[in-house]
Amino acid sequence: KAEKYEYYEILLFALYKKRNSLSVLMSKTQYERLSEKIRYFEICRKSLLEADEYVQQTGIIKIRINGGEKTWKGQVELYRNNLYSILKLVKSFNIERCLLYIEIEYFICEGDLKRALDKSLVLMKFVKNNLPVYTSMRYESALLNVILLEAQSYLFESAFTRLKEVGKMMKRHFYNHFILSEMTFLICLFSSKIEDFTKQIKIMKNLVSVQKERSEFSLKTDYFQSILDYLSTENSNNKMTFKNYTSQDLPDDKWKFSQRVFQIQLLIESEKFEQADFQIENNRKFVERLKKSEGLNARQALISKILVELSRKSYDFKKVWKSRRKEL
Predict the structure, then answer these.
(1) Which of 98, 115, 119, 189 has the fewest CB atoms in 10 Å of its CB?
(2) What is the pLDDT of residue 68?
(3) pLDDT reported for residue 212
(4) Mapped to the 3 state alphabet, what secondary structure does the chain carry?
């Protein structure tokens, strides 16, 4: 069973013990065969540790720079090639799982969402159908990865259906429940399911009312409520509902950027163009700082450029649309 489920530490312990205790009773051929088996599984053990390290490092890089950037494509490509080489030497479902994860990130770096989504679907099925790699947490994680990529590919109906499946599987502690509601809210928002994302806001509000000390979740809920107010026809005469949080309140640079952009949208919508100019210039400086820390992704850079161009062209949306049409 240890071999079947790739529990290499347990397997090697048993093999070493067998060799040490029975060595005097074995023939030379039997001893060599057992030693060869031990050497092979030592390679498997070390290779799996290396593969897991690659996955961890890929995740750390991704978090640090906030998304798939060309600046770290080379590192992910190196991990990918190394795992291909390893799999020529050993057969391991877990190393294959690591390779699939890294390939997803590699194609995200390439900007090829279709291939990234294809690989994420392969990973989801691979985890589900192979006992050595299956755990409920890994399957949920693979499924969430598919959902995120489907949402980014505008496949909202499929993403929404899969979210319901995840909801049935996940243990409903606070964090999981909130993350599910957050993802459902965003997918419903982008697919214009107004009733559904209004429902998710209520769920998030109920959750944070119990967990008041979790300020990050309260801030997210307030942010989503502001978006809902902004889009609501009932609040069309009262667009300036977004709260001014300090930078220390917001969880990370991604949220700070989103806050700034939304405030600028509200100012433009309210035709407060001088204030919008001021905020756009502040955001431009903020984006420059993000560039230096490698914390800027392609989407944020494009949004910032469009806002600067809108300001310089007196908010003539048609002119900006023509000049940026290919990028959009």
Answers:
(1) 115
(2) 42
(3) 59
(4) CCCCCCCHHHHHHHHHHHHHHHHHHCCHHHHHHHHHHHHHHHHHHHHHHHHHHHHHHHHHHHHHHCCCCHHHHHHHHHHHHHHHHHHHHCCCHHHHHHHHHHHHHHHHHHCCHHHHHHHHHHHHHHHHHCCCCCCHHHHHHHHHHHHHHHHHCCCHHHHHHHHHHHHHHCCCCHHHHHHHHHHHHHHHHHCCCHHHHHHHHHHHHHHHHHCCCCHHHHHHHHHHHHHHHHHCHHHCCCCCCCCCCCCCCCCCHHHHHHHHHHHHHHHHHCCCHHHHHHHHHHHHHHHHHHHHCCCCCHHHHHHHHHHHHHHHCCCCHHHHHHHHCCCC
